[in-house]
Design a protein that fits this description.
Length: about 170
């Protein structure tokens, strides 16, 4: 039989908050925990990726292009939708990866007003190298929860994101 759950730093913090209803208390403690977990994941991923000389934002752009499948190309507009940053942000990120030789920009031959962003062979190799490390780090960090608990939490967080953002098909 397992002993009582160990307390975390949020438990200590929440002891200092006494003027909330039970529902508000639950929401506030969950919010604190989500932010702390997200911060920890990001910090550890940044540390692991720094060995490869790559930032999370760079990996995000490489990942979007890699997920597009051969020929690993998306329009600047599609990158904008995928990455949820401003058009200036996409332009700046693409330019940074272009300087590293990981992507290239071409005018769309079917619509000369559009820019297509493609992974180069070097960029594709870099993405493949780094994604294994990223996955290993995520798996290690989340191993504090059993796989079944991870699946339940994943479903609950999906419902919350749909509540915030709407569905992917909206």
């Amino acid at each position: 039989m397992a002993g009582p759950e160990r307390r975390d730093r949020v438990d200590v913090l929440m002891e200092q908050i006494t003027t909330r209803t039970e529902d508000e208390f639950t929401a506030k403690s969950l919010s604190f925990r989500l932010r702390r977990v997200a911060h920890r994941l990001e910090t550890e991923l940044r540390r692991e990726l720094s060995a490869f000389g790559i930032e999370l934002w760079e990996l995000e752009l490489l990942g979007a292009l890699k997920r597009a499948g051969p020929p690993y190309r998306l329009s600047a507009g599609a990158l904008l939708d995928t990455m949820r940053v401003t058009s200036g942000g996409v332009t700046k990120r693409v330019a940074g990866l272009e300087r590293k030789g990981w992507v290239r920009r071409d005018v769309d031959p079917r619509d000369r007003r559009q820019i297509l962003v493609s992974l180069t062979e070097t960029g594709l190799r870099r993405a493949r190298e780094v994604f294994d490390t990223k996955t290993d780090t995520e798996t290690k960090l989340l191993s504090g929860l059993a796989p079944a608990a991870q699946r339940r939490l994943n479903e609950d967080l999906r419902r919350l994101l749909v509540h915030f953002e709407g569905g992917a098909d909206d």
